[in-house]
Design goal:
heterodimer; A: 369 residues; alpha+beta; six-stranded mixed sheet; five-stranded antiparallel sheet; 9 helices; B: 301 residues; mainly alpha; MetI-like fold; 12 helices; 69% helix; binds adenosine-5'-diphosphate; binds magnesium ion
């Protein structure tokens, strides 16, 4: 039995179905991320684990105990808020010790534990400061220590870094992960930033419109997205529309040019519209023998330091493909407007969601039909 | 008043020449305001200060201030302070509970705007009309009094109750005190973040513990500050009390007017000294208010 289990979770707010058919089984010590665009139900799911929302149906079990209907203050689940939510009237030490104080622990024991936690977050000299005297990053570290003070069974973080600037975001997320590993605490981390989710998680739950799109390791999610949504949302995969030519041979047509997938297109029929995801790392500039080749015009060149990102547009206007090349001072980067050919092996093509594409081809508004 | 004499560029700067500040004509714009402030604010205050140190013949004296410490005048101040304290506390607590219920009690939003509108009006409803309104409803032959006696058989005036006493005055003052509390405390209650309550709950705190350790300490500067404001509000009220009791209640503002109008007593210089006493009490209140306000602004930003 998994450590944290969500089974058949649904949550409705009146007419709005915020979360539907949500299932998750997280092992002890696992770091799971909920990833998805704003409004897809990540926070609602997290708040159901914390007890701030009651699921409309479904069950939440921690370590074999059903906590679905327990009050938030009876759950022993630590939460870190996007807004930090530090108590402004208390010092850092009092904030961190709050959970122990309301549990009526002896004063000297609280002081000792607070000291340990401040060491853990590398702020041992800030015990007497007030929240408004700290930077955003420091405040969020204090909030983390405060959530950990009660030794929660599960740690929940709701976009804890999104109010911070980019540099601190990266260093703090590494710090959070290091502390999580050190304590071995089961963690659910909510974010809309795919890079954050990919770099931190043992497992990612990609969500869209209240549903799970795909659950898997960062490697699986990034390399083998199971839906067009995941391919588009996670990573910088190129997503182009294509037509199936011959499903058994695995041939397709995109931008009026034939390409070949690695194997047969199961369940596909000739003439089907599909989504093809292309991994940018495998695409290279220039025509190569034995590979898929597409010709287009350079639409944009972005210099990103060690990497140069090139975007190609096709003459028939059917989309664009971006890919990265390493910056090499001895090689010229093509100018905008130049006609070029790119090459990629058949393995780089992922054929996705035939059904979804078929549905999208139907009129947008079902009522209008 | 300009600091043109100060060197504006660092010493050693090659072109360190004395900078001539041009005095524009912009200041002309505030002349009417300065004039107004002088005529109606500064001059009367100065007149008051000077007068309080003079006797009837215009000679310099401290006698007026010595008189402030006579038992009768101390009792007068005592009455004013008591009425102000009672109405500030009662109005403050009642107003806070009402504001909290409407803002955070999950009541329909329309109730909130209705209460705010009422408070805006009621907090400015004072003086003669307020006194008359109460006389007509709660007075000896007021509408409510008659209703209670004839329909329900309850005689409000059977015991010690009278609208024209200290208690009566306190009830009347409460009518504008608690709406003022609502108006001023509402933003502070809005400033209590939902995340604070949830964070507290998340760490195992009960509702009581949240109030005791988080919400009340955060609100305390605003609560105390606003009550100080209510205190000053009631301390300075005169017209309501005068109209209600016909000038027979012994509070500072009425005592001042008695010394100035001079039907029986006439000693304007003592009146000035009484007013100076009020100024001191008001100054202390306002200082305390702004200190507390500054503290809560830091928290609620
Ligand atoms: N308290 C609420 N009342 C009504 N609708 C809500 C409430 N909380 C969230 N929702 C709705 O539920 C959906 C999911 O919201 P949320 O879980 O906050 O998304 P996310 O955290 O992924 O951005 C949204 O459509 C949102 O408008
Ligand atoms: Mg959210």
């Amino acid at each position: 039995m998994a450590f944290l289990e969500l089974t058949g979770i649904q949550k409705r707010f009146g007419e709005v179905a915020a979360v539907q058919n949500f299932d998750l089984a997280a092992e002890a010590g696992e770091f799971v991320s909920f990833l998805g665009p704003s409004g897809c139900g990540k926070t609602t799911t997290l708040r159901m684990i914390a007890g701030f929302e009651r699921p409309t149906s479904g069950k939440i079990v921690v370590k074999g105990v059903d906590i679905t209907n327990r009050a938030p203050n009876q759950r022993n689940v630590g939460m870190v808020f996007q807004s930090y939510a530090l108590f402004p009237n208390m010092t850092v030490a009092d904030n961190v010790g709050f959970g122990l104080k309301v549990r009526k622990q002896p004063k000297d024991q609280i002081r000792k534990r607070v000291g340990e936690l401040l060491e853990l977050i590398h702020l041992p000299d800030k015990a007497g400061r007030y929240p408004w005297q700290l930077s955003g990053g420091q405040q969020q570290r204090v909030a983390l220590a405060r959530a950990l003070a009660i030794e929660p069974q599960v740690l929940l973080l709701d976009e804890p870094l999104s109010a911070l600037d980019a540099k601190i975001r990266v260093s703090l997320r590494n710090e959070i992960r290091a502390i999580q590993r050190q304590l071995g605490i089961t963690t659910v981390y909510v974010t809309h930033d795919q890079e954050e989710a990919l770099s931190l998680s043992d497992r990612i739950v990609v969500m869209s419109e209240g549903r799970i799109e795909q659950t898997g390791t960062p490697f699986e999610i990034y390399n083998f997205p199971s839906t067009g949504f995941v391919a588009r949302f996670v990573g910088t995969l190129n997503v182009v529309s294509a037509k199936v030519l011959d499903p058994t041979a695995g041939t397709l047509e995109t931008a009026g040019q034939p390409i070949r997938a690695a194997g047969p297109i199961s369940g596909g029929h000739s003439g089907d519209s599909v989504t093809v995801a292309l991994r940018p790392e495998i695409i290279s500039l220039g025509a190569r023998e034995g590979m898929n080749q597409l010709s287009g015009v350079v639409d944009d060149v972005t210099f990103l330091g060690s990497i140069v990102r090139v975007r190609i547009r096709f003459s028939d206007g059917s989309g664009a493909i971006s890919f990265d090349t390493f910056n090499n001072p001895h090689l010229a980067v093509p100018d905008r407007g130049t006609a070029v050919t790119i090459s990629f092996p058949p393995e780089a093509c992922l054929v996705l969601d035939r059904a979804e594409i078929a549905a999208a081809a139907a009129p947008e508004d079902p009522d209008a039909a | 008043m300009t600091n043109a004499a100060l060197p504006l560029s660092a010493p050693g700067t090659p072109s360190a020449r004395p900078v001539r500040r041009r005095i524009g004509w912009g200041w002309l714009g505030i002349v009417p305001f300065l004039l107004f402030a002088f005529l109606f604010l500064i001059a009367p205050t100065a007149y008051l200060v000077v007068g309080s140190f003079q006797n009837a013949k215009g000679a310099l004296t401290l006698e007026n201030f010595q008189q402030l410490f006579s038992p009768a005048i101390i009792a007068t101040y005592g009455n004013s302070i008591e009425i102000s304290l009672v109405t500030a506390l009662a109005g403050g607590i009642f107003g806070f509970l009402l504001a909290y219920a409407v803002i955070s009690g999950g009541l329909p939003g329309i109730l909130r705007s209705a209460l705010m509108t009422f408070s805006g009006v009621a907090s400015n409803f004072a003086g003669v009309p307020l006194a008359l309104a109460f006389i007509f409803t709660l007075g000896r032959v007021g509408l409510f009094t008659i209703f209670m006696r004839t329909v329900l058989g309850v005689d409000l005036y059977a015991g010690d109750f009278s609208l024209y006493t200290k208690l009566g005055l306190e009830i009347v003052y409460l009518y504008f005190q608690f709406p003022l509390m609502i108006l001023i405390i509402a933003p502070a209650i809005d400033g209590l973040k939902k995340d604070w309550r949830e964070a507290a709950e998340n760490m195992g705190a009960s509702s009581f513990q949240y109030w005791r350790h988080v919400a009340l300490p955060i609100l305390m500067p605003s609560l105390l500050g606003t009550m100080i404001l209510l205190f000053g509000n009631s301390f300075g009220a005169q017209a309501t009390a005068y109209q209600l009791t016909g000038g027979f209640i012994d509070i500072v503002t009425i005592a001042i007017s008695r010394q100035m109008r001079g039907d029986v007593l006439y000693d304007p210089n003592l009146g000035y000294a009484l007013a100076m006493g009020m100024v001191v009490i008001m100054a202390i209140s306002i200082t305390a208010y702004s200190l507390l306000q500054r503290r809560s602004e830091r928290w609620l930003k």
